[in-house]
Amino acid sequence: MEYSYPFSTDWSTEEVIDVVAFFEAIEQAYEKGIVKEVLMERYKRFKQIVPGKADEKRICDEFEEVSGYSSYRAVQKMKQAPEQTKIRM
């Protein structure tokens, strides 16, 4: 992809890598599909780094603006899907 991922300068290198991994999982959900458990694991780590709803919305909106992929929709579909499911947007 030809865009940059949103991140905070307050995050450690490991946190930036983990947030990028979450957004890569969202991309995968849209492009090829991703196993629910993988997306869930990456989302849980993302929420450890970005616990506030307002910050989550801002960062995810920034990502959607540059990528066209909605983290919100992918996460909602993930939450509603049964276990052992592949999430495909």
From TrEMBL:
Belongs to the UPF0223 family. It comes from the Bacteria. This is UPF0223 protein BA724_11615. It holds the Pfam family UPF0223. InterPro entries: BH2638-like_sf, UPF0223. It comes from Domibacillus iocasae.
